[in-house]
Amino acid sequence: MTELRKTLPPLPDRIKTLPLDPRGYPIPWFVGEVDGKRDFRVANQAKRVLAVKKSLCWICGDKLGRHLAFVIGPMCAVNRNTSEPPSHRECAIFAAMACPFLILPKSDYRKPPEGGARLPHALPGNPGACCVWITNSYSPYRAEDSWLIRIGAPLETLWFAEGRPATREQILESLERRLPALQAIADEEGPAAQAALARQVNATLQLLPAA
Length: 211
Prior knowledge:
Blueprint: H1 13-16, E1 31-34, E2 37-43, H2 45-54, E3 68-72, H3 74-79, E4 81-82, H4 89-98, H5 100-103, E5 130-135, E6 138-143, E7 146-151, E8 156-161, E9 164-165, H6 168-189, H7 191-205
Helix pairs in contact: 6-7
């Protein structure tokens, strides 16, 4: 019988109901299967739709309340778009403090197995810092051959890096490293897009913790 990994932060009650993987990590509700086994590299696309339609937590699978928490990288905080549905506040904070990919800045996405699907439109590489963006609204929309989520205005933003509250310097470093991807798109689209991106970046800077 697998034991809970001792290095994890305290588990919220909803997370305690999730099964454990062989390493002792709780397996989020959204994790898909490959050859009959749950595989963290794969997101269950049917659950992605169900989470939106039934207002279910992306991490624990239980019903959501009024407040919706998105675990996003700095670029998603800039453009307020993401591919992952929302979670409970406590589930999102646990993920930001416990997910191996999020807490190890030098880690990278492992290539999904053949036939496995990663979430669409995800930037490659590790963001280094992440944000728990709490809002009370969002709206799905079509994007090329898939769909994304436009996140509502923040009620609260909590920043994390390496499993702990992030410093302003850590977040700025992540922004500086990841921003060229958005800047390249804005440059291609022209002056209006460049100006819009500058406004978005400035608005994001206002959400960072003080130095």
